[in-house]
């Protein structure tokens, strides 16, 4: 741990070809971060607007309107919170990446920070996908052992929204995975070149 | 913190504990001087032995650090993650509880006692949890073996291992999320969709699930720590 504070050596000695490769990696980085932002935001909006009201017969000749909403389940509330964090984070990092692209190259220190926080966010978003997926699967299929009835035959549009939202959050967690892979690969190449 | 300082801290704690024990013994047994002297000499011999053992271990660790290209921290965390995911998979994989529940079929008749079994295969989220933890455990053992065989010298292999560690973080956290949400419904129930809680009946079953969840969460954090460690190792090369 003693050598963590050593001053960074300048990295500007490489050839123009290497610079081109690095900025190509940075372009892919910005594109993936933008994909992350788009999928997280759309998943958030789709989940928040998933409210559905149906007339449910409670007795012969009597039906009451009942809502299905995301805030009735703690799993979906966590999902919304995690994807909000992901959207905010991706706005900040897209801005940082575009700034680095305009400057012509990303600093190694920033890239290390990106690796750490991307991996952390990957954990959060993957947990959110799993959480919502676990509850939604019970809602889709039901469970006869615990007598939890399926609800997707009643609330079709609600379930469609939830399914689309889970698919989008799956895409955003995969893009986070690719982002970390890309950053680690670029760092590895930088070391191999030195 | 390097090995030497941790060794010194350990020795200090040991000496303090022994001193305390010795005073305690002398105060409680004031008449049996001979036994307390015997105890004192035994303590001195043990201390000397531990000292010699620690010194040799220190030398060994230094030699190993010079010849190999992986850190002991990385191996220890990997072993920790492997053990935690193994325990989580086994805890949920052997989880089964049978309870007698009285069911009223017809209100005029007395309730009938029926044996009801809760098993992990009945819920798809639990099946996913066990499979994910088994995969993480197998991967942990394989990567440990690969690191030991290649001695951390092959750069491409360590890059691949870092990449796969990240996949394990995703898989473990999603499994924890899925099982946690289903377990929360089992614990609290959900009145909006008429899903009743089941943990008031199957308390041991639910307790075991929460233990497995905790283990698997810690395993996921351990894989995350592995990524941080390898990133720091990359950082130190700049």
UniProtKB/TrEMBL annotation, chain A:
Keywords of the record? Cell membrane, Membrane, Transmembrane, Transmembrane helix
Q: Which topology term describes how it sits in the membrane?
A: Multi-pass membrane protein
Q: Which residues does the UniProt record annotate as the domain Casparian strip membrane protein?
A: 24-174
Identify the GO cellular component terms for this protein: plasma membrane
Annotated transmembrane regions: 30-48, 75-102, 114-140, 160-188
Pfam annotation, one family: CASP_dom
Q: Which residues form the signal peptide?
A: none
The UniProt entry lists the main location of this chain as membrane
Where located? Cell membrane
Task: Give the family per the record.
Answer: Belongs to the Casparian strip membrane proteins (CASP) family.
The record's subunit annotation is: Homodimer and heterodimers.
What's the protein called, per UniProt? CASP-like protein
List the taxonomic lineage.
Eukaryota, Viridiplantae, Streptophyta, Embryophyta, Tracheophyta
Automatic annotation (TrEMBL), chain B:
**Major place of localization?**
membrane
Q: Where in or outside the cell?
A: Cell membrane
Q: Where is the Casparian strip membrane protein domain?
A: 74-219
Topology term for the membrane: Multi-pass membrane protein
Instruction: Kindly state which keywords UniProt assigns to this record, in alphabetical order.
Output: Cell membrane, Membrane, Transmembrane, Transmembrane helix
Q: Where are the transmembrane segments?
A: 75-94, 125-149, 161-187, 207-229
Instruction: Fetch the Pfam families from UniProt.
Output: CASP_dom (PF04535)
Output a single Gene Ontology CC term carried by this record: plasma membrane
What NCBIfam families would the database entry show? A_tha_TIGR01569
What do we know about how this protein assembles, alone or with others? Homodimer and heterodimers.
- Which family would the database say this protein is a member of? Belongs to the Casparian strip membrane proteins (CASP) family.
Please state what the protein is called. CASP-like protein
User: Lineage of this protein's species?
Assistant: Eukaryota, Viridiplantae, Streptophyta, Embryophyta, Tracheophyta
């Amino acid at each position: 741990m003693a050598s963590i504070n050593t001053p960074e050596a300048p990295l500007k000695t490489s050839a123009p070809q290497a610079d081109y490769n690095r900025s190509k990696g940075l372009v892919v980085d910005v594109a993936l971060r933008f994909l992350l932002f788009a999928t997280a935001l759309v998943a958030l909006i789709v989940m928040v607007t998933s409210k559905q009201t149906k007339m449910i017969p409670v007795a012969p000749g009597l039906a009451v309107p009942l809502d299905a909403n995301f805030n009735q389940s703690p799993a979906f509330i966590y999902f919304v919170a995690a994807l909000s964090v992901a959207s905010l984070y991706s706005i900040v990092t897209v801005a940082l990446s575009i700034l680095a692209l305009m400057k012509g190259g990303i600093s190694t220190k920033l890239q290390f920070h990106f690796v750490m926080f991307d991996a952390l966010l990957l954990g959060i978003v993957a947990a959110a996908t799993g959480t919502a997926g676990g509850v939604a699967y019970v809602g889709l299929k039901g469970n006869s052992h615990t007598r939890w009835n399926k609800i997707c035959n009643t609330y079709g549009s609600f379930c469609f929204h939830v399914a689309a939202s889970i698919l989008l959050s799956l895409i955003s967690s995969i893009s986070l995975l690719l982002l970390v892979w890309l950053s680690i690969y670029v760092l590895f190449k930088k070391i191999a070149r030195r | 913190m390097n090995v030497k300082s941790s060794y010194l801290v350990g020795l200090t704690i040991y000496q303090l504990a022994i001193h305390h024990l010795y005073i305690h013994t002398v105060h409680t047994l004031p008449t049996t001087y001979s036994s307390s002297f015997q105890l004192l000499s035994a303590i001195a011999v043990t201390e000397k032995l531990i000292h010699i053992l620690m010194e040799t271990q220190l030398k060994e660790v230094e030699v190993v650090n010079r010849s190999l290209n992986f850190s002991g921290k990385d191996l220890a965390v990997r072993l920790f993650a492997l053990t935690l995911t193994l325990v989580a998979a086994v805890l949920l994989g052997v989880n089964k509880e049978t309870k007698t529940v009285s069911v009223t079929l017809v209100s005029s008749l007395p309730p009938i006692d029926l044996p009801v079994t809760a098993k992990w295969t009945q819920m798809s989220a639990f099946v996913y949890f066990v499979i994910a933890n088994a995969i993480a455990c197998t991967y942990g053992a394989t990567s440990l073996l690969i690191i030991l065989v290649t001695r951390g010298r092959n750069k491409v292999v360590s890059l691949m291992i870092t990449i796969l560690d990240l996949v394990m973080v995703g898989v473990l956290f999603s499994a924890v999320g899925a099982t946690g949400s289903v377990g929360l419904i089992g614990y609290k129930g959900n009145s909006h969709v008429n899903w009743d809680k089941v943990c008031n009946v199957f308390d041991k079953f639910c307790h075991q699930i929460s233990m497995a969840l905790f283990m698997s969460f810690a395993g996921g954090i351990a894989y995350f720590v592995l990524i941080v460690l390898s990133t720091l190792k990359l950082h130190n090369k700049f």
